[in-house]
Every structure is written in C-alpha cells, then in structure tokens.
UniProtKB/TrEMBL annotation:
Organism: Streptomyces erythrogriseus
Domain Large ribosomal subunit protein bL12 C-terminal, first and last residues per copy: 62-89
Protein name: Large ribosomal subunit protein bL12 C-terminal domain-containing protein
InterPro entries for this protein: Ribosomal_bL12_C, Ribosomal_bL12_C/ClpS-like
Pfam families: Ribosomal_L12
C-alpha cells in the first residue's frame, strides 16, 4: 500500500513539473511575440490605446500615482511593473 502511494505521488510530481515547464515555455514565447509586436508598432509610429487615459492623466497631474497605477491596471489588465512604467512615462 505504501509503495502505491509513493508511486502516485511521484507520478503527480512529474505531471506538475511537466505542466510547469510547458507554461514557462509558453510565457517565453508570448514575451517574444509581444516584443516583436512592440517593435512593429514603434516602426509604424503607432501607440497602444489606453482605456480611461484621461482619468489616469488627471490622477498623474494631481500627484496621485498609486491611484493612477491602480486605475491603469484595472483598465488594461497590466501587471504592477508594467502599469508603474506606463504611468511614470505619462508623468
């Protein structure tokens, strides 16, 4: 009985490791595609539309950086670092 539990635990651990490896590869591929898309947009002189940009700019002008970052994240679904960089660029 103990051997069966050990075997099942090993199978689950290997399965989790395999899934994590696939996710890591996918994350790297997505990041590479995003970099390429950003390069194409810069080359064409295009900027990404930011929803609620006027509200975010108002918060930035009022010195409310934290609220601006929070609103940017809500509006775009960006991560914290990306949102902070974008809001800093608006300053």
């Amino acid at each position: 009985m103990d051997i069966a539990i050990l075997f099942c635990t090993c199978v689950v651990a290997l399965g989790v490791a395999s899934i994590q490896t696939q996710l890591t590869r996918s994350d790297r591929r997505v990041a590479r595609v995003e970099r390429k898309l950003d390069a194409v947009m810069r080359h064409l002189g295009l900027e990404e539309e930011v929803p609620r940009k006027d509200e975010i700019l108002t918060l930035v002008r009022d010195g409310k950086q934290v609220q601006a970052i929070k609103l940017y994240r809500e509006a775009t679904g960006a991560g914290l670092v990306e949102a902070k960089q974008a809001v800093d660029a608006m300053s």
